[in-house]
């Protein structure tokens, strides 16, 4: 049973479009990370959010943690082909030694 | 490069053989994690070390799997009598004992069991 559900699972868009990826759970997390993974490589950390309602921006990427710390979103503005990859959200619960529970992943393809 | 490293990057083995993977964490990171990722899925937690102590193991880690971190630095993950269902990417991550629970992943070892 996947505790973190991501939507959409697949997204194919053209360069310049905006998109939002959602990460939802019925569980509360003490922190939530977003990673991007290229084929055959390990996940690369993009951001960590820890406070309910927190918004973090990383260039064209905007991350939001839900007020109740059960959900998160990733918004990409003016997508570029270099944004192509698998986006994973991962949550850590208090008292669990920070082991991560990963979402199902969103595979993004940005074409010219 | 001071990131997490894993060796080998790829391993092909026949069913029934034993395999061992190595992970070198970021230096001075005292916490080390192993995850397994199958095709089309997010990584799943396998086990966790704080220094040399293995503090938690997932029920995914059958008795054919064993992990060690003998000196609190590098770690090894051994799979005995491999099965086709063991085919996956095995990922190692490390973190310091402080901060926002940020884990940094290695490039992974892709295991294929024929």
Structural class of chain A: mainly beta
Proportion of helical residues of chain A: under 10%
Largest sheet, strands/sense/barrel of chain B: 7 strands, mixed
The helical percent of chain B reads under 10%
Number of helices of chain B: 0
Strand content of chain B: over 45%
- Which consecutive residue ranges of chain A, at least 5 long each, have pLDDT under 50? none
List keywords for this structure.
heterodimer, A: 112 residues, five-stranded antiparallel beta sheet, 0% helix, B: 114 residues, mainly beta, seven-stranded mixed beta sheet, 11 strands, 49% strand
Which SSEs are present, and which pair or pack?
The complex is a heterodimer of chains A (112) and B (114).
Chain A: E1 5-7, E2 10-14, E3 19-24, E4 31-37, E5 44-49, E6 55-58, E7 61-65, E8 71-76, E9 85-92, E10 100-102, E11 106-111
Parallel strand pairs in A: 2-11
Antiparallel strand pairs in A: 1-3, 3-8, 4-5, 4-9, 6-7, 7-8, 9-10, 9-11
Chain B: E1 5-7, E2 10-13, E3 19-24, E4 31-37, E5 44-50, E6 53-57, E7 65-68, E8 75-79, E9 88-95, E10 104-105, E11 109-113
Parallel strand pairs in B: 2-11
Antiparallel strand pairs in B: 1-3, 3-8, 4-5, 4-9, 5-6, 7-8, 9-10, 9-11
Give a written overview of the molecule.
Chain A has strands at 5-7, 10-14, 19-24, 31-37, 44-49, 55-58, 61-65, 71-76, 85-92, 100-102, 106-111. Chain A is mainly β. The model of chain A has no long low-confidence stretch (mean pLDDT 93). Chain B is mainly β and 114 residues long. In chain B, 0% of the residues lie in helices and 49% in strands. In chain B, the strands form 2 sheets. In chain B, strands 2, 4, 5, 6, 9, 10 and 11 form a 7-stranded mixed β-sheet that branches. In chain B, strands 1-3-8-7 form a 4-stranded antiparallel β-sheet, with no helix packed on it. In chain B, strand 7 and strand 8 form a beta hairpin. Chain B is globular and about 40 Å long. The chains are: A mainly beta (112), B mainly beta (114). The interface between A and B is medium-sized, with 26 and 28 residues.
């Amino acid at each position: 049973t996947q505790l973190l559900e991501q939507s959409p699972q697949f997204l194919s868009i053209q360069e310049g479009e905006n998109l939002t990826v959602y990460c939802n759970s019925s569980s509360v997390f003490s922190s939530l990370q977003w990673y991007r993974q290229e084929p055959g490589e390990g996940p690369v950390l993009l951001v960590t959010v820890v406070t309910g309602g927190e918004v973090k921006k990383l260039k064209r990427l905007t991350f939001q943690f839900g007020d109740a710390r059960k959900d998160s979103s990733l918004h990409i503005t003016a997508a570029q082909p270099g944004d192509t990859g698998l986006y994973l959200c991962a949550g850590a619960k208090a008292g669990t030694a920070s082991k991560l529970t990963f979402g199902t992943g969103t595979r993004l393809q940005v074409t010219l | 490069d001071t990131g997490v490293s894993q060796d080998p990057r790829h391993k092909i083995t026949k069913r029934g053989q034993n395999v061992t993977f190595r992970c070198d964490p970021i230096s001075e990171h005292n916490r080390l994690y192993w995850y397994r990722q199958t095709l089309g899925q997010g990584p799943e937690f396998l086990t966790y070390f704080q220094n040399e102590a293995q503090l938690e193991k997932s029920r995914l880690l059958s008795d054919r799997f064993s992990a060690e971190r003998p000196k609190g630095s590098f770690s090894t993950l051994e799979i005995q009598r491999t099965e086709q269902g063991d085919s996956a990417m095995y990922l190692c991550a490390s973190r310091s004992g402080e901060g926002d629970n940020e884990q940094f992943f290695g490039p992974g070892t892709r295991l294929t069991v024929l």
